[in-house]
Design a protein that fits this description.
Blueprint: H1 2-23, H2 26-38, H3 40-46, H4 50-70, H5 73-94, H6 108-125, H7 133-154, H8 158-183, H9 185-190, H10 196-223, E1 229-234, E2 243-248
Antiparallel strand pairs: 1-2
Helix pairs in contact: 1-4, 2-4, 2-10, 4-5, 5-6, 5-7, 7-8, 8-10
Length: 255
Amino acid sequence: MEVFDILSMMVMMEMVMVVVLMFSNVTFFIFGPLMTFLMRPYIQQRSRYLYVLFVLFTVTGLFSMYFHMTLSFLGQMLDEIAILWLLASGYSIWLPRCYFPAFLGQNRSRYSSLIIIISLVSTFLSFLRPTINAYALNAIGLHIIYIVVQEYKKTKNKELQHLIEVSTVIWALAFTSWISDRLLCSFWQWINFSYLHSIWHVLISFTFPYGMVILALVDSAYEMPNKTLKVRYWPRDTWPMGLPYVEMGDDHKSC
C-alpha cells in the first residue's frame, strides 16, 4: 500500500508539473495580440512585416504548450524552430545597419536575404543535433544583449536606458532559471521544486515585449529620425509595473 501511495504521489506531482508548464505559456497568448494592438500605429509606419514577428511570438507560446503537453520530438522541434524564426524576424527588421557584416554594406534587403538563408540552414541543422538547439538559441540571446549594451553606451535617452536596465535584470533572472533547471535538475527534483522551467517561461515572455520596445527605439534613431516615439505602459503609465509599448508622436518640424 505504501508503494502504491508513493507511486500515486509521484504521478500526481508529474501531472501538476505538466499543467504548470502548460499554463506558464498563457502570457504569450496575452502579450502577443495585446502588443500587436498597442504597437499598431508604429507597425503601420515602420514595417507591416512586424505583424509576422508578433504572430510568431504567439505561436511560440502555442508550440511550447504543445511540447510540454506531449513531450514529443515534434513538439520540441516546433517550439525551437518558432523561437529561431522569431529571433530571425527581429534581426532582419530591427538590427541597425552599423552592425551589418561589412561585405553587405548597409543594404537591408541583402541582409534580410542572408538572415533567411541562415535561418533555413539552421532549421535543417536543428534536426541533426537537437540536444544543442536550446543552447544555440540562448547564445543568440547573448548576442542581442551585446548589441543592446552597445546602444546603452551610445544613448542619452533616459527612457531607453531604463528599459534596457529592467529588461536585462528580467532576462538574467530568466536565464538563471533556465540554466539552473538544466544543470541542477536532479537537485530541484530532490527538494520537490520542479517549476524553474515554468518561471523561465513567464520571465522570458516579459523579456520579449521589453526587448521589442528597446529595439524599436534603437531602430527609430537610425531609420525614423524625423519621428518621435514615446514609451507608454499598459494598462497605465502611473502603475509601478506595466507592459511597455511605443506611441507615435508628431514629426519633428524643421525651420
